[in-house]
Amino acid sequence: MTIGVWWRGLNAVLFGRRMREELAEEMRLHLELRAQANQAAGLNEEEARLEAQKRFGNPLVLADESRDAWGVRWLDELRQDLRYAGRQLRRAPGFSAVAVITVGVALGLSTGAFTIYNTLALKPLPVRAPGEVVRVVRKTDRSTLDELPWSVVDLIQRHARQLHQVVVTSAPTLMPGGTGQVAEPLSVRFISPDYFDVLGVTPAIGTLSAMSAGGVVLSYDFWSHRMNRDPGVIGRVITVQGIPQTIAGVASASFAGTGLPPAAPDLWVPMASEPLLMRGVDWTRSDTPEWQVLARRVGAAGAEQVTAELKVLAAAIPADSTGTTQLQAKQATYFQTDSGEFETFGTLTNVLMIAVGLILLIACFNLVHLLGARNAARERDVAMRLALGAARARIARQLCTESALLGILGGVCGLILSIWLCRLLQVWIVGTIAQFTGGAGRLAVDFSPNWLVFAYAGTLSLVVGTVVGLWPALRAAKGDVNTVLKPGATDSRAAGSRRHMLLALQIASSLVLLTGAGLLLGGVWKSRGVTTGFDADHMLVLQIDPSRTATPVERAALMRNATQRISAIPGVRGVAWSDRGPYMGHRLRTFMHLPTHTLLTYGGVFVSPGFFDATGIALLEGRTFTPEEAEQGRHVVIVSEAIWRRFWPAEDIIGKSVQPSAWLMAPDSVPYTIVGIAKDVRNTYLSRVDEGYEYFPAPPAYASVLLVRTTGAPEGTMRPVLSALGELGPDIPSRAHLVTLRDGPLALQHMFASAPASLAGSLAAIGLLLSAVSLYGLVAHSVTRRTREIGIRVALGARSENILGAVLRSTLSPVGWGAALGALGAAGVSYQMTQMLSAPDAPDLTYGAGTHNPVVFAAVLGVLAVVATVASLIPAARALRVDAMVALRHD
């Protein structure tokens, strides 16, 4: 049996007697030809007929010759359909262009969103057999962390039976070094000696096998940009921290490491060199969580089995300040969006896929409108072919071929559009990170399409073209020949109602997109007038990598000396240390306020005595910390105004002793004394004032950043600050990251609001444009189909406003139904955004405007009404220019 015969037999069952008669006639002719061939071979007439019937008596069982004939005929028909579809599309360039652009834009956005989702959530590590590699993370009471202390790594290496070939890599650290006389900062990651062997990374040049102390591997980017792809670098010496290291190899261009976030360092250095290069610091002998762990699963063990074993091992790990530890194995991916800081990106890509899915749905409805209108204009042609004996299945297949061809052409255009958009996004991301981090930030992001993206684009374009065109094709092929061939025949009421239903769904989808975009754009507008509550315009943020400082005493001395030298610079108003800067991460605690049964979220930070002078945060009452309180970590606290008004609105709380409770983020259980009340500021997120904030004194060993307040523009003080750091040690500037608060963390906060709003606004505009085109086409089609009716009305003396009203009443009704349905969807969007924004660890992208903003809803409805009116009036105005004599002759 062949596919061709089954296809013809199925058509015979589905489409009736004509097909069965055609099949029987074709088989009779084939049997006669076979009998003639047998006669030519020497058989008599009776023997030839019996031989033919013996081999081909069943019309659904064919031998090779018949199979070839059916296959050739099927291919001939397919080629004929494609040629005819191509001619039809060339004869209607306007229709073809609109259809291809509509499908191309929707498929381009969908393919681009899938490319982003594939890169962030699905892209495996560029290693050998990536499906076998798992990443071990620790899940505490408060967060999921990907860095483990060496004691935990050693526990996994010695006792995990479901894992083998465990490898580690450290967090990146900056070190001075290079090949010339002038030292330059180098990004270094320490790795286990079998790191590249276990992962199966292919070298670009040299070798990556069994690295020992004194050898390093260069990243492809460092080799390309710093060494001009010199093939002779193997065996050359490069200095790191003044110590010579031999270049053993260069990693491949596709390998950006296994760290989170993914970013290739300049050098991979064996962990045996760490105590030497870090001046006595040995992360294998400390509890500092510096190691990221990967391993290969044993045999058929899955991630769930590995996790079950790791949970047993984690019981031996004592609790620390972050809470109890649970170990978990996750399938290793490039960005690991199912844990850590990139978990939010996975959620955002899911939201993006839903948004572009709505655009694709609108485009599909639009294509159904276009194909339905085109097929309706060809009703007489189809009816004539049916009257001359053409099979309905043949006509439906030919019309489906046209729509499939449109889908394929749109898919090609969409793929090109998605590649272009993703390249722009990639350049923007890299540039934005460099801008916000002063060039120190790195992120290896590659939105180049792989086979999965191509398969997605091809499958989606073919499915959209075929499925969307199936309904209009079947409707056109089922048309009544007698009704269509009658003069003055018009579209059926049922067909018009179906088009109205589709248009209503389009309008509803557009309204949902517009509502989400309007809420986000309203937040961007409000962010323009938001103030931080402190002097953010005159502040520098200085981070010094403390990882190479041997002891907390040395780290404290470094921060103390840096503070003294920077304070002496002319134009510096104040310097303070803190464990985190504004908008640079946060420590939050959420608890239930029992009297009101509301969830409250408080933040906390460890600061130096000069913190409030350095930031410009006003103290409403009380005092700041003394140097002794900071050096010794005394049990005192400064609370924000919101905490004071919530718990003691009518009391003087200065000197009040408070017990550690759910709201007090004290590091121990000793009572704390309130010594001051600070003004409420936007410290965690620019988009919302902190519900409550607590400030604790801390010695400089706790510091991770220095905050420098200047009297003038902070940019003018950056060079003197770096010079002052150079006086402390030649390697200190290479370990420092200096950026203005306005151009760094604060600009990033603005981007958190503007980027989603811009994306949502663009998608909403595209959806609204597609809906407007569909509405325009519906009204234009209605005017064309009712030309004869309009001519009769004009001949009978109907006025222009009556004709215009009749046309608009019949076509604008789906706009009203779509707006009503879209209002329900918009309410759902508002509810979902409320749930998202009410999360304690999430920014308020509306900047306090809320998700039930009547101004936004009114503006969205106004935009929709204007667009719908304009799209309807332009073709409806044509009805007023209809000549009665011409219209009465219209057929």
Structure write-up:
The chain is α+β, with helices and mostly antiparallel strands and 891 residues long. The protein folds into four domains: 3-91, no CATH class; 130-334, no CATH class; 344-529 and 748-888, no CATH class; 536-744, no CATH class. Helices cover 52% and strands 15% of the residues. The protein contains 26 helices and 23 strands. The strands form four sheets. Strands 15, 16, 17, 18, 19, 20 and 21 form a seven-stranded mixed sheet that branches. The longest helix is centred in the middle third of the chain and has 45 residues, at 392-436. The protein starts with a helix and ends with a helix. The relative contact order is 0.10.
**Whole-angstrom Rg:** 36 Å
List low-confidence stretches.
1-7, 9-20, 55-68
Major sheet: 7 strands, mixed
Mean pLDDT, rounded to whole units? Answer: 78
Q: Quaternary status of these chains?
A: single chain
Structural class: alpha+beta
Number of E-state strands: 23
Number of helices: 26
Helix content: 40-55%
Strand content: 5-15%
Can you tell me the overall shape?
A: globular
Question: How many domain regions?
Answer: 4
Q: In angstroms, what separates the terminal alpha carbons?
A: 48 Å
